[in-house]
């Protein structure tokens, strides 16, 4: 047995060591993300949804994937669906040890805000809060999304107040619980008819309690060997210049032209956009029917034979890189390491005025940006939309994003369609067998 005094100092030394090893947390200041060490944070992320329910409960798989992501150069994952009742300690520790942060969606299929019949009610609030309760405890939880691609046309822009109300109430809940100020915001479909009204709407207004703390876009415009101007990225940069909160690409990786070159990374993380944009998340980690994967866990099999492969693609095992996409992305990221600005140097000039709230216009954006937001369970007041407006997409020189995650009415704004179809096939086969 150790002497009491020795035990005390050993315990103290252990606690100091543990504190020094704590993952720096992420916060939003002005239009940028910073670590608690005072460094600007740029996202090099991967969409990570191995299974429809929750990929963060299989510790061994997370360890294998985290190691491979280190090789790739990733520092973040985006997870669309989680089970708040699951045990996430092992996976969160594995990713933290690899220097990888979690970007997690608070909604799920039953709780998402729908574009055609939008609502923000008590059941949704409770469900969102439960996920926040679970993941706020981890230092490498970077931020929370309240929705993904809820609005896909100007015609459904009257859903925007419900998204903003969700931001407002989740910020209030976070602060009432005295949680760390993990940024809360939204992941949007890149729709020309919503630019830049939606991004401005979510960050406008005099009431800071109602404003989003970041905005992000799912962008699939840069295909093959495109260019900054030809892809429409120059328009994205134009709309984001002077924006008052962090903005980043929450999905990218067009596969219309194969192989994927990921040459857009040099624009997002390079001198053209890095002063404004905070990085990018690549769609996606696992190879499945949609053919966006960077790794696979083995050859495709008959889903009727292996229930572990919902759509025929194995969901666990040793990650094997998909060539040449994996190597192309790794090579791009290896040359891109923006340092940005130190928090101490930035804070003095971090006061950026919110944009003007967009006004409703017949034939376009239909939300009166200055109208009161709906409270929990409340239906949108008619004053919030243009009277008698029949909106149509206004478009622009660049084309709409061809996002694999789709809108809220089909796949729930999440790319698990292939997995769900595979599971349906298994269930139908079982019924036939019976």
Overview of this protein structure:
With 434 residues, this protein is α/β, with parallel strands linked by helices. 28% of the residues lie in helices and 13% in strands. It has eleven helices and twelve strands. The chain has helices at residues 4-20, 59-72, 89-97, 122-135, 160-176, 197-203, 233-240, 265-268, 325-334, 343-346, 417-433, and strands spanning 26-29, 32-35, 43-47, 76-79, 101-105, 141-148, 184-189, 215-218, 247-252, 277-282, 295-296, 320-321. It has an eight-stranded parallel beta barrel with strand order 3-4-5-6-7-8-9-10, surrounded by four helices. Helix 2 (59-72) runs parallel beside helix 3 (89-97) and helix 4 (122-135) packs across helix 5 (160-176). The longest helix is centred in the first third of the chain and has 17 residues, at 4-20. The protein starts with a helix and ends with a helix. The model is unreliable at 1-20, 387-402 and 406-434 (pLDDT under 50).
**Spatial ordering of strands, largest sheet:** 3-4-5-6-7-8-9-10
- What is the H/E string? HEEEHEHEHEHEHEHEHEEEHHH
How much β-strand is present in the residues?
Answer: 5-15%
| Form type | globular
Distance between the termini: 63 Å
The average pLDDT is: 86
Helix content: 25-40%
Largest beta-sheet details: 8 strands, parallel, barrel
Q: How does the helix and strand content classify structurally?
A: alpha/beta
DSSP helix count?
11
Considering the chains and any ligands shown, give keywords for the structure:
434 residues; alpha/beta; 13% strand; disordered N terminus; disordered C terminus
């Amino acid at each position: 047995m150790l002497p009491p005094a020795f035990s005390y100092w050993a315990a103290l030394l252990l606690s100091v060591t543990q504190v020094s090893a704590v993952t720096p947390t992420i916060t939003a200041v002005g239009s940028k993300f910073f670590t608690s060490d005072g460094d600007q944070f740029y996202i090099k992320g991967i969409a990570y949804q191995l299974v429809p329910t929750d990929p963060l409960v299989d510790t061994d798989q997370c360890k294998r994937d985290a190691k491979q992501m280190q090789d790739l150069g990733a520092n973040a994952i985006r997870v669309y669906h989680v089970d708040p009742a699951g045990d996430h300690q092992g996976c969160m520790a594995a990713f933290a040890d690899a220097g990888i942060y979690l970007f997690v969606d608070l909604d799920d299929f039953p709780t998402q805000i729908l574009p055609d019949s939008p609502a923000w009610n008590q059941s949704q609030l409770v469900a969102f809060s439960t996920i926040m309760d679970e993941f706020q405890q981890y230092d490498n939880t970077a931020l929370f999304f309240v929705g993904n691609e809820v609005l896909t046309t100007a015609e459904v822009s009257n859903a925007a107040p419900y998204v903003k109300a969700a931001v407002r109430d989740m910020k209030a809940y976070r602060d009432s619980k005295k949680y760390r100020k993990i940024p809360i915001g939204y992941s949007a479909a890149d729709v020309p008819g919503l630019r830049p009204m939606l991004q401005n709407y979510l960050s406008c207004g005099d009431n800071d309690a109602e404003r989003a703390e970041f905005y992000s876009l799912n962008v699939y415009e840069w295909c093959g060997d495109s260019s900054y101007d030809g892809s429409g990225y120059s328009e994205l940069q134009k709309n984001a210049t002077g924006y008052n909160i962090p903005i980043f690409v929450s999905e990218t990786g067009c596969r219309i032209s194969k192989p994927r070159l990921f040459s857009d990374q040099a624009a997002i993380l390079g001198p053209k956009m890095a002063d404004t944009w905070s990085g990018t998340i690549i769609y996606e980690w696992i190879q499945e029917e949609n053919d966006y994967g960077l790794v696979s866990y083995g050859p495709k099999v008959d889903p009727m034979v292996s229930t572990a492969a919902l759509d025929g693609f194995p969901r666990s095992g040793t990650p094997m890189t998909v060539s040449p996409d994996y190597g192309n992305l790794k090579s791009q990221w290896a040359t891109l390491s923006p340092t940005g600005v130190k928090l101490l140097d930035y804070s003095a000039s971090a006061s950026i005025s919110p944009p003007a709230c967009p006004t409703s216009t017949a034939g376009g954006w239909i939300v009166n940006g200055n109208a009161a937001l709906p409270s929990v369970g409340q239906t949108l007041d008619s004053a919030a939309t243009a009277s008698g407006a029949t909106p149509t997409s206004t478009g622009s020189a660049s084309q709409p994003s061809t996002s694999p995650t789709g809108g809220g009415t089909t796949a729930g704004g999440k790319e698990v369609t292939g997995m769900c179809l595979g599971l349906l096939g298994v269930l139908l086969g079982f019924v036939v067998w019976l």
